[in-house]
């Protein structure tokens, strides 16, 4: 009995991955072994950085809130403690947006907890 290989499925698998390598530089876009390694590494980075993105944004929000709070004579930790004590449940994303784009609203919040 002749050896049977499923060429259709194998080609489909390779084509799918080569499509993912579109836009890569040099041999990474058109040589199967190089492209496969580049794609797999890229997928690892994508997974890892979806988690890191959340950390990065939280750090950015904290910096913006801190800058806004210091304009009104408070530190970030003092402001967050006072908000918690006053039972004002605004998350860091919203507070950072207020500090950046709506300084009057942010000032009223700071005045309320002072």
TrEMBL record:
GO terms for cellular component: ribosome. It comes from the Bacteria. This is Large ribosomal subunit protein bL20. Belongs to the bacterial ribosomal protein bL20 family. The gene is rplT. Keywords: Ribonucleoprotein, Ribosomal protein, RNA-binding, rRNA-binding. HAMAP family: Ribosomal_bL20. InterPro entries: Ribosomal_bL20, RIBOSOMAL_L20_CS, Ribosomal_protein_bL20_C. Pfam families: Ribosomal_L20. It comes from Pontibacter aydingkolensis.
